[in-house]
Structure formats: C-alpha cells, structure tokens
Amino acid sequence: RPNLATRFCDRWAATWNTGDAHAIRGLHDDRHVVVHHEWDIAIDRRTEWEGEQRLIGSHVELEALATLGERHALHRLRITLPHPSSGGDVLHDRFLVSRVSPGGECTVHDDTFLPEHLHRALACLFERWADDELDGADRRRARTIATGLRSNDVVAGRDWDAYRSTLAEDVVQIDNRPAGAGELHGPDAVVAWIRELDSAAGGLTITT
Hints:
The chain has helices at 4-16, 21-25, 45-52, 118-133, 136-149, 151-156, 160-165, 187-201; strands at 28-36, 41-44, 59-68, 72-82, 89-100, 107-113, 172-175, 182-185. It is α+β, with helices and mostly antiparallel strands. The strands form two sheets. A six-stranded mixed sheet has the order 2-1-6-5-4-3, with helices on both faces.
C-alpha cells in the first residue's frame, strides 16, 4: 500500500535523476542519518552529502517492496553509474528502509542492506515502525515479528537461547517431508530438533 514514505521516495528518485544538486540536497532533513548495515556505520547528513555529490549523474531505480504505517517503507534501490576506466556501467544493489517526516516532506532516517540480507531489512522495517509509530501491545507485537525475522542469523550463530525466545510457548512446527521431523509441539522440541539438525549437518545456513 502506498504511503508517505513511498511517495517521498518516488519524488526523491525522480529528482535525483535530474542531476539537480540543489534540489536533491533539499529533500533530506539536516538531522537525517543513514545506517549502512553492510559496513556497520552510521553517517550524518553533512558527511553523507560530501560523498553523495560524487554520485550525482548516476541513475537510480526504486522498487517498493513493503510499507508499514504511514511513514516507513522498504525499497530495492539500484544505482547505475559509469565505470571510471572501463567505459561500462557499475550497478550498486541494496535494500533501503526509509522513515520520512510526519508530513512526508523529507527523510529523517535510512538503513541500507546487502541484497542477500532481505530478512535483516524486513526486521529493521518492523523495528523502525514499532519505535516510531506504535506503542503498547502493538509495539511489542511488531518487535516480536522483527525478532522472528532475525532468527536466520540466530540459528547461524548457534545462539539457541535467543532462538527459543523467538518461539511462542504453544508453537507447533509441522514438517511434511517424508523423512522429516513430523509434528513438534513447544519451543523446547523445536530447538532440540534444529540443534540436532545443525549438529548432523555441521552447521546450518538459512536463507530467506
């Protein structure tokens, strides 16, 4: 469902592709922060703009993937720019989680993720939405969903207590494969099964 965030991002992409540096700079709040999770760094607006100016002239494409509330959205961002020596193009592909101002005039926070980390981007979308637009039980529910989305990383890190915390006490897991686990009831049974699977396989990698 389109919201303030997707409408702003459409406007940002169209403005970026004009190459008008003054107009581009005006679309971000001075308090804007972008967190590049692929490098584990957070950058303020002034620092970001110093690097961003060097990319003006590139072409951006945004594909809306998900929205939550009125001010949060997840996009796939593709930036195409000419290679400085080969004469070809270089494609930068990222997931982008955006939060816009209450009126949708500008972005106040962005998060970027590598294309293989969709689960992390989705978890971030739920966390940003929960912290900014929800409270009480709704906030707790959204953060629980985010924790579940991060369970891929938890399993890969063999943090079994953290994995158990993502499961409800009445969880039921049904494995319909002929040689599968069948029906498991309760978090302890699910954790025991996945630990056994991890041990037998020499480590698990779960992809979304």
